[in-house]
Design goal:
The protein is of the alpha+beta class and 393 residues long. The chain contains 16 helices and 14 strands. The structure holds flavin mononucleotide. The site of flavin mononucleotide has 10 residues, from β13.
Length: 393
């Protein structure tokens, strides 16, 4: 057998803190910390804790030149080599190691930039309740944030003094200004009001629909959307959690942009949709009640087909999602609906529900829209009173 190291690997020396009763009894703080190496290899489902000897082995093993396994065993010890093979950090050339080898080959075939793939996989959440997390950390209010972190950097940046400033002509606000100014993140959805199907249809075709098509080359179709997209590749797919839409069964759907149609997706056994919606937006109940949630998930391989192993390609995918989100917000505002975007999402649970694979078509954000509630229970930033009447002093 021959052995090599997996191609993409980042070693993290993480400090782990744990409660220690003996330390407390001995007069310490009761919190003892230790350093632990974690190997991030994005073809694996999660980072793996390894010891310093294994770090040295990985540091001395080429990801491209195969080595004889016996030579490796003699040099680094059979037990260590076996453990790293089992973990998938070393790749073996024979049949017993086929699944690790194939997982690595699958990732390589996607043309991820190495560091971007590490970052992407390591920033996915599973089972996170960010709403509760902010309460626990005391940062769920402006006052709490100010107390914890001091004052933020100034909202307005000044370069140079007043003297050289060139005042710009005032413009007369028009309908576009009214639309732009009315967009306000909605955290208060009417928990009963359904969304008319026609409204959902307009939202989808305006934000995600193919507004034009052409063939750039043989078997190379290009579509046009209302948002820009790196390389005109439009890799971002829209997956929907439909909760309350007239004439549409609640469930999970994929938006087919070619046919402007919804594709119902199978639900996992024992699926609780309301619980899933809450988990998807990591416990943010103010978003979970929206009648429609849209998961924005780029098909990375479509972008990476052009931008192969490119250091900017992942950034472009994130920007694409941001553009689609803003288009969605403005379309919703135009319909008189409230809308939101959040990146505080549990990607792993979303992937499971929709049958996605994080490295292939990973969710980056969730948007939602629907009728607003009559009263504001959760804070919304509306200093000009465009959405909520300003209370008189
Ligand atoms: C990328 C992104 C992520 C956001 N994530 C959250 C979030 O997790 N929870 C939330 O309540 N608001 C979230 N927001 C909304 C912002 O808090 C909001 O845009 C900001 O407070 C300004 O208010 P406005 O959108 O009403 O102008 C997010 C906004 C953006 C652009």
């Amino acid at each position: 057998m021959r052995v090599r190291r997996c191609a993409v690997l980042w070693m993290e020396p993480r400090e782990l803190a744990q409660f220690d009763l003996n330390d407390l009894l001995a007069g310490g703080t009761g919190v003892v910390s230790r350093l632990q190496w974690f190997a991030h290899a994005p073809h694996l489902p999660a980072p793996i804790g390894i010891d310093a000897d294994a770090v040295a082995v990985l540091g001395e093993t080429s990801p491209t030149d195969w080595m004889d396994a016996n030579v490796m065993r003699q040099r680094f010890g059979a037990a260590c080599v076996r453990k790293l093979l089992q973990a998938g950090l070393l790749i073996g050339s024979t049949k017993p190691w086929a699944s690790q080898r194939e997982a690595e080959a699958r990732l390589a075939s996607l043309h991820w930039h190495g560091l971007a793939s590490v970052w992407h996989m390591a920033s996915r959440w599973q089972g996170v309740d960010s709403a509760q997390g902010m309460i626990d950390a005391g940062v769920n209010s402006a006052e709490g944030l100010r107390e914890k972190h001091g004052a933020p950097p100034a909202a307005v940046l000044e370069r140079g003094g007043n003297d050289g400033r060139i005042g710009l002509p005032a413009s007369v606000p028009d309908e576009l200004d009214a639309l732009l100014d009315a967009r306000t993140t909605c955290r208060n959805f009417d928990p009963q009001a359904p969304l008319p199907l026609a409204m959902l249809s307009r939202m989808l075709i305006r934000t995600f629909g193919a507004r034009g098509r052409m063939q750039a080359a043989d078997e190379y179709d290009v579509i046009k959307r209302t948002s820009p997209s790196g390389g005109a590749l439009h890799p971002t797919e829209c997956y929907l959690v439909v909760q309350r839409v007239d004439g549409l069964l609640p469930g999970l759907y994929h938006y087919h942009l070619g046919a402007h149609a919804l594709e119902p997706l199978p639900q996992p056994a024992g699926f609780d949709q309301a619980a899933f919606a809450l988990t998807a937006v990591s416990g943010q109940h103010w978003f979970a009640e929206a009648p429609v949630l849209c998961v924005l998930a780029p098909r990375f391989s479509r972008n990476f087909w052009k931008y192969r192993n490119h250091p900017k390609a992942y950034r472009v995918c994130i920007l694409d999602v941001g553009h689609l989100s803003q288009t969605l917000q403005l379309c919703a505002t135009h319909e008189g609906l409230g809308s939101f975007v959040t990146a505080a999402i549990n990607e792993v649970e979303i992937e499971h529900a929709f049958g996605l694979h994080g490295a292939i078509d990973g969710p980056l954000a969730v948007c939602g829209f629907g009728r607003r509630a009559q009263a504001m229970a959760t804070y919304e930033l509306d200093p000009n009173g465009r959405i909520w009447p300003l209370s008189k002093p």
